[in-house]
Structure formats: structure tokens, C-alpha cells
Amino acid sequence: MMRAALTQALHHAAHRHAFGRSLAEQPLMQNVLADLALETEAATLLAFRLARAFDRSTSDDSERRLVRLMTPIAKYWLCKRLPPLVVEAMECLGGNGYVEEAPLARLYREAPLNGIWEGSGNVICLDVLRSLLKEPASLEALQAEIGVAGERVRKQAPTISRCSGTPRRRKVRRGGIVESIAVALQASLMVRLCGAGRRRGFLRVPPRR
To answer: What digits encode the pLDDT tens for the residues 196-206?
Structure first.
């Protein structure tokens, strides 16, 4: 759905003209489209990395531990980020994006539903906590995955270290911890798999709720 929303915004910006040139040539619109593209790419990489972990989980304990943690983390973060991304894409089209004749109107209605279908954010965060309590070694696997990209990416997730606190304190911070982990995972993937421009763009302004 992120990719669909981005596609609609890019197509409209390329064909809609204002002030003597296309919207895609306007600097402010370019910033908006770039942010949408970066977040969509990071979301796609996170989903693909989780799929690879599933493929390897039967023969690799580290990948199995990653699957157990990354699945609820990805569900939580991507479901939370989808609605604001669709709204931003809709804004690129103006009023035309809101009317029923435009595909973005349907995406706008469906975007919050993913978070409802996949379970509430609190329940998913507690699932992450249960996984950490049941198998503490999964935290090491997660830190190793993030750390592959280097020290700068590790700093994107300062709250991960707090996972070693008491269960009560972890519950209080669960949302912030899961969000921090998700962004760090995406940053690690962007650094390892994307070009310099996209890597710098994501690290400079990572997505936030």
C-alpha cells in the first residue's frame, strides 16, 4: 500500500503543471516525494529481510531468533507508518486525491485497517517483550543484525540497550523501544543495500511517529 500511494503521488507530480513547470520539478514537492520514496524503500527492505530470515530459519538459529522478533516489530512499525504516509501522498494530489474517483481515497480508508487486523500496537509490543523474556539470545541476534552497518546505525536505536531493564520498566517503554528497533533495522538495511544519496537521506531524517 505504501508503494501504491507513492506511485500515485509520483505520477500526479510528473503530469500536473503549476507555475510554469511540473510539480515534480518544484523543489518543495521534490522534498516530499523523496521522503515518501525513502520511507517506502526502507519498508520494502525490512519486509524482504524478514522474508529471507524465514527462508533461513530452519537451518540457522540466529535467523530463527530474528524471525521471532522482526515479525511483530515489522507489523507494528509498518502499520503505524502507513496512514501518515498515505495522507502525505494524498496531499500531493490536492483535492483530487480525496475524491472517490482517485485510488488514494480507497488507500486512505484501508490504511488504518492494517493496524486493526494485525492486532493493536500495545499487544504487538507486548509480543516483542514476551519474545525477549523467553529467549534473551534473540536480543543479541538483533543487535548483531543492526550492527553490521556500523556504529552510526547503532546510534539510531539508543533505547535498545534498555531492553535489559526490569520487566516492569520495559513495559512502560515498550512502544519507544519497538519503534527505535524498527528504525535502526531499516537504517542498517539502507546503509548496506542502497546508494550513498538514499543512505544519507534516511540517516539524516529517519521516519518518526
So the answer is: 999 889 988 77
Nearest Cα neighbor of 104 from 122, 120, 85, 89 is 89
Distance, C-alpha 127 to centroid of its chain: 18
- From the list 209, 70, 201, 84, the residue with the least C-alpha distance to 143 is 70
Q: Model pTM? A: 0.87
Residues of the chain with confidence (pLDDT) below 70 = 152, 154-175, 209
State whether residue 74 is helix, strand or coil.
helix
Question: To which residue does cell 523474556 refer?
Answer: 133
Helix (H, G, I), strand (E, B) or coil at 207: coil
List b or e across 162-184, with b for residues whose CB sees 16 or more CB atoms inside 10 angstroms. Answer: ebeeeeeebeebbeebbbbbbbb
